[in-house]
Design goal:
4 domains; single chain; alpha+beta
Length: 760
């Protein structure tokens, strides 16, 4: 399919009536003379009651490509499969991925996962009796669940991968280097030989393997007789591998949310002020500090995915004086205030992939160690993003007290960098951290916080807290039929709603004395509800537990849900004493006051290729008329509502084709710049920037001399006299004068203090 083209090969259907949905799942439907049948529904689509239907004749053409030659009959011959898992695995072909051009299936193998037994004190929640017992337990943890390895020579960064029936994270690790060192140690040259999940022996070095998948990544492995069969079908049917969510070059600081803050029940006011301080400064300086303004627009060097408007802002900050930027700043300020009052505030932390100790995995794989030692000990992590000795590791959803405080060995042990060579956070196989945070390593990201105040507060609140543990139900398999698919999706529609449970947990946390026992029971119910679509099992509350949970949750939602969940005033409780409610007083609402002088003067000529353009030309009038007509037809679509955002590229493409049929894009841009920035001075420029941003950037790059710079004090653009100059001559002189005056005052003060007072 071409980008921005319209196609009816695939139709996304949203369900409103189950009887109608049952009919079209079992019998298909006809549209414009073509029959459509159910293809799949991803986990995200199931949550929004959506499903993917495909033109039947097109499905016959691509069936083997998206399923790697595995038919429904093949699956049913093996006893069937869990229907919702099957739909999710088939939906991998819908992932927003980029094809990996260098991928070679012959340089990949699949091996067994690393699983060890970890012993830990836990709160065991019995889903039948609804009782909680603290006890020491030994339980298996699949450390590589969803995680495989890729050589640094193939990729320098971790990323998620998608193949037919294969998904998960590929973590960068030099396993070839490990093999060579193991061979030197053992002196037998056999370390490179391992068995795949079908029992076939492979020589990693001889076969030039650069990717090692794990069994947990290969979701339908048991339906193939061997890895060679999968590879043969992969090549025969022209299957491809896709990459998504590649690790960024520079990972930006993140925000914490109300769930993570509400569990810090004894957070002091001074600690909370420190935590929200960065956000409070950003909001208060959003119209007065140029760097803050650029940062909230995303016009920073750290942003690796800047759009054309952000690139133009970074190159020419004088654009901040435009009415469009001011209008956007008002909107951004309102969003930042709403986020802050709902508990989403900036912290010194980053979201990054969580990866197990792959050195331990290689010890197990190539050295035959059943219980490898690895490089990290219990309670240790490695994250080179931070120099802090202690880190608070968090993951959403955060329902129970799930602040995993861990020792960061990166500052003390730089030698580990030869093995842990990415920006991920690496965890120990001796640790129960995956049970605390309930993560897999298939692409899950942790919020890793290094703020000392937050870490100490979390450490204090985690005293006496151990992981929750419950025996989850197993998902069954059954033969695939349209009726089975319908029943599976309806079960997910009706029984997988975790929103109410999450809100009930929040109600309990916002009680001055939260009942932790109730929170543990609700967390257990939440996890069973998440798995309900696969297992069709939910625990039933005994009468005593029902009474206790009802009493603990018979409260209004907290006040900050006005901003967190768009609730009305009458739907929430008055402001309470919880830490999130206190943020409202720490970040008061204020008016924007723009500094007219500090951001320089906008010269619209620099945005144009030909600023002498005559707007009375017939061609210019024709461009302007076409633009105005199109924008009038679009209405507010370009100030996108959620339902219309997905169509924006198509709408813009149509408008671009219409305008460039009249004149080249350079001419169109000049006409629109002169009209919108000089004649009309309108703040409504969303369409313009999406349409002409690329050309405006080219014009700015051609018009702005590299010999000029933007004075950080007065905002004037002046000629640069030396490479490190940041202020114009006048501002630099004023700064020196002020500095010297301050030094004189400091000198006189110290002289007065050093004088011996006269005796009485």
């Amino acid at each position: 399919m071409d980008i921005n083209g319209l196609y009816n090969d695939i139709i996304i259907v949203k369900t409103y009536f189950f009887d109608v949905f049952k009919n079209i799942v079992e019998d298909g439907f006809t549209y414009q003379g073509d029959r459509y049948v159910l293809l799949t529904a991803s986990a995200g689509q199931i949550r929004t009651k959506k499903s993917v239907f495909i033109k039947e004749k097109r499905l016959q053409e691509v069936q083997d490509v998206i399923s790697c030659g595995l038919s429904v009959d093949d699956i049913n011959a093996h006893g069937g499969v869990n229907v919702n898992k099957y739909l999710a695995y088939l939906a991998l072909s819908n992932s927003a991925t980029d094809v990996i051009p260098w991928f070679d299936i012959d340089r990949c193998i699949v091996v067994d996962d690393l699983e060890t037994t970890v012993t830990s004190m836990v709160d065991f929640v019995d889903e039948k009796t609804y009782t909680v017992h603290r006890q020491e337990m030994s339980f298996p943890i699949t450390h590589t669940d969803g995680c495989g390895m890729i050589l640094p020579s193939a990729s320098k960064k971790n990323f998620m991968i998608r193949l037919p029936w294969i998904k998960g994270l590929l973590a960068v690790f030099p396993f070839d280097k490990f093999i060579n060192q193991a061979n030197m140690y053992k002196n037998d040259g056999n370390s490179a030989k391992i068995k795949d999940i079908y029992g076939e022996t492979h020589d990693i070095l001889a076969e030039n393997i650069n990717i090692i998948f794990t069994k947990s990544q290969f979701k339908m492995w048991k339906y193939y007789s061997s890895w060679d069969e999968y590879k043969e079908k992969f090549k025969r049917f022209g299957c491809t591998a896709g990459m998504c969510n590649e690790e960024d070059d520079k990972i930006q600081d993140a925000k914490i949310n109300y769930q993570m803050l509400q569990t810090l029940t004894d957070l002091r006011e001074d600690e909370l002020e420190h935590i929200v301080g960065k956000t409070a400064y950003k909001i208060s300086s959003i119209s007065s500090d140029r760097e803050t303004m650029l940062r909230v627009f995303g016009a920073t060097t750290k942003n690796q995915h800047k759009n054309y408007f952000q690139q133009c802002l970074l190159l020419y900050p004088e654009l901040l004086q435009d009415e469009y930027c001011r209008d956007m700043l008002r909107s951004i300020k309102g969003s930042l205030e709403k986020e802050a009052w709902s508990g989403r505030v900036d912290v010194y932390g980053k979201y990054t992939f969580v990866v197990p100790d792959m050195f331990a995995f290689c010890q197990h794989l190539f050295c035959g160690e059943a219980i490898p030692t690895g490089l990290l000990k219990n309670g240790e992590v490695y994250c080179r993003l931070f120099r802090a000795p202690e880190l608070d590791c968090l993951r959403s959803p955060h329902l129970y007290r799930e602040h995993a405080i861990r020792t960061n060995v990166a500052p003390e042990k730089p030698e580990m960098a030869e093995w842990f060579c990415t920006d991920a956070i690496y965890t120990s196989i001796e640790d129960n951290i995956s049970k605390i945070l309930m993560f897999d390593c298939d692409g899950d990201k942790l919020l890793v916080c290094a703020d000392k105040v937050l870490v100490q507060a979390a450490k204090r609140n985690m005293e006496g807290i151990v992981p929750l543990y419950y025996e989850m139900a197993k998902a069954g398999s059954m033969p695939l039929t349209p009726t089975v698919m319908y029943n599976g999706m309806i079960a997910a529609y009706t029984g997988g709603n975790i929103g109410q449970i999450s809100n009930d947990i929040t109600k309990v946390w916002n009680n001055p004395e939260p009942d932790l026992e109730v929170i543990k029971l609700l967390c257990m119910e939440n996890n069973f509800t998440i798995d309900y679509a696969k297992t069709l099992y939910k625990p039933v509350r005994p009468p005593e537990a029902e009474k206790r949970i009802t009493e603990a949750t018979r409260r209004q939602l907290p006040h900050y849900f006005i901003w967190a969940k768009d609730k009305r005033e009458d739907q929430v409780a008055p402001p309470g004493t919880g830490c999130v409610d206190k943020i409202l007083d720490m970040i008061p609402k204020g008016r924007l006051r723009f500094d007219q002088k500090k951001n320089g003067k906008l010269n619209y000529h620099l945005l144009m290729q030909n600023w002498r353009l005559d707007m009375e030309e017939e061609k210019a009038k024709e461009v302007l008329a076409a633009y105005k007509g199109a924008v009038a037809d679009i209405g507010t679509v370009m100030y996108f509502s959620e339902d219309q955002q997905d169509n924006s590229n198509y709408i813009l493409g149509q408008l671009r084709d219409k305008l460039t049929a009249i004149a080249p894009m350079e001419y169109v841009t000049d006409v629109l710049v002169k009209h919108l920035f000089h004649q009309k001075h309108t703040p409504r420029k969303v369409v313009f920037w999406n349409l002409c941003g690329e050309q405006v950037l080219k014009n700015l790059q051609a018009n702005i001399s590299t010999k000029t710079f933007y004075c950080v004090s007065c905002g004037k653009r002046v000629v640069r006299r030396h490479p490190n100059q940041t202020r114009c001559d006048q501002c630099a002189a004023d700064r020196r004068k002020a500095y010297n005056a301050e030094k004189q005052r400091e000198y006189r003060r110290k002289k007065r203090e050093s004088c011996t007072p006269l005796s009485q």
